[in-house]
C-alpha cells in the first residue's frame, strides 16, 4: 500500500479536497495548477491515505473547518469503500481489480 509523508487540503474551483504528497514541494505544483488555500503538514510517520485522513481528523487539523473536515472524511470513506469492495470480491473468489493499488493520489 502506498504511503505519504505530507497531508492536508487545498481548494480548486471552489472545491476543497484532501491532498497527499511525499514532499513539501508539492505545494509549488498545486499553486502552479491554480490551487488556493493550500495547507499541508508533515506527518509523524509515513501513512496510507486512510491513515493520513484519520490522523488529520483525530488531531484537530483546522483549515476551513466545515469544508476541510468534510473533504477529508469523504476521501477517507471513499478509499475505505474501495478496499472493502476489493476484499469482498476476493472473498467471493472473483478477480480483484487493481483498485487497492490504484487509489487516487490526491
Describe this structure in words.
The longest helix has 27 residues, at 65-91. The radius of gyration is 15 Å and the shape is elongated. It is an alpha+beta fold and 106 residues long. The protein has three helices and three strands; from the N terminus they run ββαβαα. It has one domain (4-91). It is 42% helix and 26% strand. Helix 2 packs antiparallel against helix 3 (65-91).
Q: What keywords describe this structure?
A:
single chain; 106 residues; alpha+beta; three-stranded antiparallel sheet; 3 helices; 3 strands; 42% helix
The SSE order reads EEHEHH
The span between the termini is 15 Å
Main sheet: strands, sense, barrel: 3 strands, antiparallel
Low-confidence stretches: 99-106
Give the number of DSSP strands. 3
Helix proportion: 40-55%
The number of helical runs is: 3
Shape: elongated
| Number of individual domains | 1
List the topology elements:
Elements: E1 4-12, E2 15-21, H1 26-32, E3 36-47, H2 49-58, H3 65-91
Antiparallel strand pairs: 1-2, 1-3
Quick summary of this structure?
The protein has 106 residues and is of the alpha+beta class. It has helices spanning 26-32, 49-58, 65-91; strands at 4-12, 15-21, 36-47. It has a three-stranded antiparallel sheet, with helices on both faces.
